[in-house]
Amino acid sequence: MFNASLKQLSLQLAEKKISSTELTTEFLNRIKKLNAEYNAFITVNEEISLAQARAADKMIAAGQANPLTGIPIAQKDIFCAKGWLTTCGSKMLSNFVSPYDAGVIERFNQVGAVNIGKTNMDEFAMGSSNETSFYGVVKNPWDVSAVPGGSSGGAACAVAARLAPAATGTDTGGSIRQPAALCGISGIKPTYGLVSRYGMIAFASSLDQGGPMAKSAEDLALMLNVMVGFDPRDSTSLQRDAEDYARDLQKPLAGLRIGLPKEYFAEGMSQDVASAIEKALEEYRKLGAQTVEVSLPNAPLAIPVYYVLAPAEASSNLSRFDGVRYGHRAQSYSDLRDMYRKTRAEGFGAEVKRRILIGTYVLSHGYYDAYYIKAQKLRRLIAQDFTEAYKQCDIIMGPTTPTVAFNLGEKSDDPIQMYLSDIYTSAANLTGLPAMSIPVGLGDKNRPVGLHIMGNYFREAQMLNVAHQYQQVTDWHLKSPV
Amino acid sequence: MQWEIVIGLEVHAQLSTRSKIFSGASTAYGAPPNTQACVIDLALPGVLPVLNKGAVERAIKLGLSVGAKINSPSIFARKNYFYPDLPKGYQISQLELPVVQGGSIQIQVDGVEKNIRLTRAHLEEDAGKSLHEDFHGMSGIDLNRAGTPLLEIVSEPDMRSSAEAVAYAKTLHSLVRWIGICDGNMQEGSFRCDANVSVRPRGSEQLGTRCEIKNLNSFRFLEKAIDYEARRQIEILEDGGTIRQETRLYDANKDETRTMRSKEDANDYRYFPDPDLLPLEIPQSWIDQLKETLPELPAARRNRYVTAFGLSAYDAGVLTSTRELADYFENTVKQLSAQAKLCANWIMGEISGQLNKEGMEITACPISPTQLAVLLSRISDGTISGKAAKTVFESLWHGEQNVDAIIAAKGLKQISDDSAIEKLVDEVLAANAQQVADYRNGKEKAFNSLIGQIMKATQGKANPAQVNAILKKKLAG
Residues 419-438, chain B: which have Cβ within 8 Å of A? Predict the structure, then answer.
């Protein structure tokens, strides 16, 4: 049951082989047993989860089931969910019980999915190892001495350790794809604007995008079918006709042109990752695809551009955490400034403070043009590179990360090395393009390797097809560390 | 040395939308604290702004009314600073590419017309309110006002006296009400002025260092604050000092301005385009559509009253001070062809006087334009005298409805029959032979005495013009 796909679970529920209440209880028990070791969840709320399961059972009995009705889904603790503690991995929100549902949570509630718990994450989604969480590090189920990646590390761990059939994540610079790669699961960041950001606690508004994390491309398609949709409460939400993201899963890949950016196959990629990626590409050639070299000349600038723009937006987005209305407030203070200072000094961790400082600096008078404006111009150049590249290919592939999961503590004192974990992923956020990661092998120390699949705008169905066809002829996605 | 005062104004006009600029919460004034603040106004984690179309429409209407350029795209930016009544830690405002760019407003001071240029008008959200009393050493925060739509209208430094500044503020105040984008209620803070004041030697081209005076919530305070501030600056300069650029607050009780914060203390607001709000595209078709809905503007009406009705520029200005007053005038005058001056005199005199006395607006006037038109037509057709008309006016004001019924009931009808008046004149002349002789001997005063006698004999009902003419004829004869 814990290894079952969403489709299989849905079938079992429909055929009454198991009830949602039973299924939910099974997962809750498994979380109870294993979460102490992995720390994938910050909050579990059996009462709410079981109430949702009972409601789902009624929907199923009434014949109103959707593909995800009654299926437990782990929600990243960045999504506000009514009645749930919603911490965003921070001490700052350690007492914040949301009075409202995020757009994404609403959509899961509407189809009768069960919220199985709120997953651990880097504080305010700032991190690539889940080590910045106020609620403690998350362990990589493949090797508990390794990081799970971040910021959606709890979500990736939960799916990999089979604590939840599927999970939501958010991706600002790689926060879905990098942990998916490091934990050997599949994850997709859709085109910017497809998934509502309403109620998804903002890190960098122009880069943040929610998306699903699951065992397979097929499961991702079912999750996307629920998550994607226009939300009038988000001004950057796109108004488009509904799509079935599973519609093209079975299409053969003959004639598919896969672009391999020469900049991504240069130095920096470790040997174990390179060989796993090469094997995956070989599979694709066997499936009838052809590979072509493309160039993304400005892609190497993605990290510096990202680390100007994301902190700039974050410094402003995080201003609301001031101790005035909700969240943490310092115990004692002498005046207003002192209250602000102590509250924010106590409430935010080191990485969040670092990014607020960087962001405040780049937006400051006299530096704005040199940093923020310059970075925005480069952002456009990076986007133009992709436009050019997609004239020569349908899909772009490369490694999701330069190395397999690193050890806990290995990079936590070296922010630059940590930031370089997102070297291949952040361009998708800067451009708004969809991108995903699927497991394609095991590298050093038997830790997973992720293949990065990037598509053109709104080509999620095609990307899922490309991923699914690979998963039909390989079994990396079925491998479980537990 | 002769000094010249240079003034530019920043006006915050609260736009008359029912809901806030970025949320659906109500903007109604005076609700209990924090009852009109939704999750968006409270800046809960994860919430996002959605622009209120009505606020943009109002901004465009202002732009069209002042001949400004409407920018498309227009950009919303975040102005970052910490304050407890600023829930997000930033205010959504506009820096580059405001909705409205340029334009101008005509003002009149002492009958002289002057053109005041506008720099821009941009949309922004208001902050909440900090309440420092009644909380035992703590402060209360009321976020009802947070997110209320404001249009900040910025003028060029084109004004040279407090009188010009007041004239500009009043003209703008009248305009925003005229086009229905702001209720103009200054007590409730719907129309707030900040004044940038500097002085320079007369003839100098270079602007002096300016001070900004905040929150002038009446025209009188605006005038007094500018006068005080200009005097203060002139005194400093004449004593050989220099002006420090700063923000000052006007204290109405002491009639002085005092330092609020100096330029050095000013925040670096770290403006940047708000990534939650996309650049606002304003299609020409939308602008055209809004243009259709604009009423005839005060300046156009003023000109029409001068050219079509032959009113003085002053009268036309007074009558167009509000759209309601102008409408009242037009509704009256259209029933009284060619009597515009009479009509204007009565509206600016009797009607306005009585309204002022009772603290009422023209919209609450108990006398309808039709009633006034009937009354005035009874003057012009000679039925009643101007004096009797005032009696009728009194009755109408106090609720009586029918002009002719009042005239009849009070016996106010004028004697306008020439033969009847001649008969009366003859009687009075016969009875006052001495005064007739005096008049003929050059004593002009005797004429008025005779008129008085005639009017007395008719209890004031004789048509004065006719009495005058007939008496003159008889005496000459």
Answer: none
Burial class for A272, CB neighbours closer than 10 Å (0-12, 13-18, 19+): middle
**CATH code, domain carrying B422:** 1.10.10.410
* Residue of B90, B268, B276 with shortest CB distance to A319: B90
* ipTM of the modeled complex: 0.96
Q: How confident is the model at residue B338 (pLDDT cuts 50, 70, 90)?
A: low
pLDDT in tens, A39-82: 999 999 999 999 999 999 999 999 999 999 999 999 999 999 99
Mean pLDDT confidence for A97-101: 98
Give the residue from chain B lying closest to A369, CA to CA. B272
Relative orientation angle of helices B433-440 and B464-476, to the nearest 10 degrees = 70
d(CA A219, CA A10): 11
**What is the span of the domain harbouring residue B66?**
3-288
Q: Residue B383: pLDDT band by 50, 70, 90 thresholds?
A: confident
Task: Specify whether B208 is located in the same domain as B132.
Answer: yes
Task: Give the separation between CA B244 and CA A412, rounded to whole angstroms.
Answer: 49
Are residue B203 and residue B319 in the same domain, yes or no? no
CATH 3.90.1300.10 is held by the domain A6-251: yes
Cβ-based contacts of B19 with chain A (< 8 Å): none
A215 catalytic per annotation: no
Number of domain units in chain B = 3
Contact B44 A360 (CB under 8 A): no
Q: Which of A129, A151, A152, A426 is catalytic?
A: A151
The residue from B394, B410, B426 where one domain ends is B410
User: Nearest to residue B100, comparing CAs of B290, B321, B292, B299?
Assistant: B290
- How far does B23 lie from chain A, in Å, by closest CA? 9
Across the interface, do A236 and B42 touch by the CB < 8 Å criterion? no
- Same domain (yes/no): B78, B51: yes
Same domain membership, residue B252 and residue B122: yes
